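User: Assemble these into one structure.

Assistant: Restating your components, then the assembled model:
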Amino acid sequence: MEGLKDRDLFQALKNDNEAAFEQLFHHYYAPLCLFSSRILHDHQKAEEIVQEVFLKIWSARKTLRIGSSVKNYLFHAVRNQSLNVIEHEKVERRYHEQVQRESFSAHDPDAFFLEVGLRRKIEESICALPEKRRGIFRLSREERLTYHEIANRLGISVKTVETQMGLALKQLREMLKDYSDYL
Amino acid sequence: MEKTKHMTEEEWIAIARDLYDKSDGTASLSGHPEGPAVEIVKTAKEIDLYFRLKQFDTERAFQQLKQSGYQSPATRRGIGQTRPVLKVAAAAVLALLVASAAFFVGTGKQEATRQSGVTVDQYGHSKIQLADGTMVTLNHDSKMNYPGRFDRDVREVSIEGEAFFEVHPDASRPFVIHAGDATINVLGTSFNVNAYPGNDEVEVVVETGKVRISKTKASTAVVREMILDPGERGTVKTAGGEMQKSRNDNPNFLAWKTRRFVFTKTSLKEVMAQLNKVYRVQVKASDPQLEKLLLTAHFEDRSLDFILKVISLTHDLKVEAVDDAYVLKD
């Protein structure tokens, strides 16, 4: 998906092709927002910054020079803009649980991407979980609660949460292993 | 990977616990994973990345970008006027009783108005128990729209004014509260919502559990949301919809319901503001200098007279009462 295709899209963009712009946007938006929010610890501001960067690209498309990698350009632009915001606006650095100490590297843009097919498969797999198990899994992974907090909120035992999370992981791994391992 | 086929349920539970039962929300295995565990961690990270990316609504962001003619978000925010949702809701609830009666929002079904499930506490606040067991205490001049029976996949109410929610846990159905321009999303937790129509913001303070607030109106650049933990306070501005999160530094946010006050070197100005809100009176000082005096005291369900007496004794002041107004003077 990278490299050649991006360059083509960028060329089309220079020729006022909005569909090309849209494709670039769709491919990069969420990963760039995630990247920026790691720097700013603020999802709102991250989204605003990424939108600004894209808008600048659109308005300066005629004269813009991007170099060898569209991906690197975008990540650099977002990184710089994020650091600017910290400098000038003294953004309050609240450590949201969901962005604190992420398990993937801050410096590798590729770590912020999830291949489209895999994303769809993950979505399907989660939906395939039984309702109660799915709810517990979401509370853990989406709302970032500890087992104890989940148990409290749902009025169930920690043991039940442990079991359900284990079974969820097992089920999900089973559904995803063929896709994930051979990507 | 064939290896995982031979893993017992106990082993899965152990790996999951090691990965997921963390207070900081990260997914990582302590120690060195070997064999099948490496692949499992990889999948777990992919799933976590999925949830992280899901937080950002790309489609919506692009649509709004496009609709605004590729205008910068900052410009759009200045231009967009959010129509207060409450004005529309108010018209609908006008016909309904205010005081302590229960009332319904029709869900297409005709149901008789029930009086059961509604009581009044000792301060005149309505306490309503909803169909799922959730308890809601309404402050004065506050209203809640709610159905006699909730939907199967979501529990929705809307409020105007101020209310304290004790939401009954139900994993299968999120509890959604519409308050002004804010949408508050919970599964089971207790928190205070302040959304009086006259105010310029909606405020939520969380006591237990976690609450997600998102902005209802789509007239700003992005759909914003924030998650509040216990002890945190979130606000959504009516105009512009700016959202802010902070640690709640007002220990008296629930005083309207509990009549429990904690003052720690609190200025009389602030003390009087709290008393005015909770007791619905007008306490003021004869001299602005008096407002700077400090008070350190705890009050557990005391009458206004008692509290004023304590203040006057502490600082050697006199209390003059005229109707609902009290004046503290030297």
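The mean pLDDT of chain B is 77.
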